[in-house]
Amino acid sequence: MSHPHPAKKSLPLHWKMLIGFVGGTVLGLCANFFAADAEWLKTLTTYVADPMGQLFLRLLFMLVVPLVFSALILGVVEIGDPKSLGRIGGRTLFWIMTVTTIAVSIGLAAVNLVKPGEGLTPEQRARLMEEAGKHSDRVASATEAAHNLSGMEVLLNIVPRNPIAAAANNDLIAVMFFALMFGIAATLIRNRATEHFVLVCQGVYDICLKLIDWVIRLAPYAVAAMLFSVTAKLGLDVLLLLAKFVATAVGAMGVHFAVIFPLLVWLVARRSPLKFLKGAQPAIVTAFSTSSSSATLPTTLMCAEERLGVPRRVSRFVCTLGATANMNGTAMFEGIAVLFLAQFYDVDLSLAQQVMVLGLCVVGGIGAAGVPGGSLPVIASILLMFGIPPEGLALILGVDRLLDMCRTTVNVTGDLVLSTVVARGEPAEAEGTMDIEAGERALPGH
Question: Which DSSP letter does residue 389 get?
């Protein structure tokens, strides 16, 4: 009598991503160590690894705008009445400001303690300045953007003149504002036409999730390709010259990630930090690999709803908003970079000026774009305010990709922490929410 063989269990996707992550990193470091200047390595990264990574990122970015628009509208509609929206929105803003302030404070304290910008020999300074010349174009672009970055302009840009143009330019803050207004109006107008519109948004959201499910299957291979490319091209000599700066930044982010986040999850959200980290693992790996909070948003939403059990109406609102506004790692890095360059150029910042830097970094972290390198114009604008040469940005660009991966990991983990904290004490279903499933059943043919 033959017994059917049990179906082999497939390895979970997040484990495949971890394997790709480790494999790509190890191969890239080996290639960098043994053949850093080889022509074949340059060809491999330029024509194979980089295009694979970029294709994966483009597929994710392609879905970000429709996902953000539909998720935010559905989140607002499911929250229901404006009173509940105000409560959740207020708690979200409070925790964003509080945790970001803690993050920047840790970063500033670390720089003052370690002083990574001091003690460099004249030879090391000369080497760094020579290396900095390779990044003059990016610095010029960031400085130009900083000159155009005024507080009033940033405030006005939240409201889009043309929401279609904002979507085309990937201006997520403007898209979010438009979606919030649409969602609030949809909750106040209770008629059949509005229910149809909400169902269309639900359809768009479901389609985006299905497409993301297809795209994310490529993640292990894309992660391996991106990590191989980054580590193979990483200037190890520059990394050694900036070892104190890198160690300070990574150490400060590590403290925030390993101490502050678990404390918030344990004391405020009343959850197990270990179970939280296990549930957040796919988003953490994706964030580190892509260096983009926006590209990681689909995975963040999946982790919040399916693995951490955050109510949909909270996760859709908080995680979508957090992908642009909740930037703990970015704000911390901005503060660290400003103080490091102040030390490098012997610009003495008083305690009052450092407190001002803290405030600017908290606000700048909220406004920074959730894409790779999105914080550079903000850092350049803060440097200009305190008379620190913005050209100094070029000093840290050689190691920025590595640090960008670390700060994006902190940003995305912060979004998931925020969603669990805000969800604490919220009812599973709020009174007055629009029942999307009931509306779907009421449609012809259902």
Answer: -
Q: Cα–Cα distance between 294 and 67 in angstroms, integer?
A: 10
Out of 3.30.450.20, 1.10.3860.10, 1.10.443.10, 3.40.50.980, the CATH code matching 13-424 is 1.10.3860.10
Q: For residue 97, give the amino acid letter.
A: M
Helix, coil or strand: residue 2:
coil
**DSSP for 153-220, written as a single string:** HHHHHTS-S-HHHHHHTT-HHHHHHHHHHHHHHHHH--SHHHHHHHHHHHHHHHHHHHHHHHHHTTHH
3-state helix, strand, coil in the chain (%, to 5): 80, 0, 20
The two structure tokens encoding residue 238 = 């520059």
Yes or no: say if 423 and 265 are a contact pair by the CB < 8 Å rule.
no
Selection from 238, 264, 255, 265 nearest residue 336 by Cα: 255
Q: Which residue has the tokens 């992660």?
A: 223
pLDDT, one tens digit per residue, over 384-402 is 888 888 877 877 877 788 8
Helix ranges (DSSP H) in 256-292: 261-263, 273-290
Condensed to tens digits (0 to 9), the pLDDT of residues 109-147 reads 999 999 988 877 777 777 777 665 655 666 666 666 555
Average pLDDT over residues 346-351: 87
- Which residues touch 305 (CB under 8 Å, ≥6 apart)? 312, 315
CA–CA separation, 52 and 368 (whole Å): 26
**Hey, what long-range contacts does 33-36 have (CB within 8 A, 24 or more apart)?**
33/236, 36/232, 36/236
Q: Where are the domains of the chain?
A: 13-424
Query: How far is the C-alpha of 173 from the C-alpha of 367, rounded, in Å?
Result: 8
Distance CA 241, CA 128 (A): 8
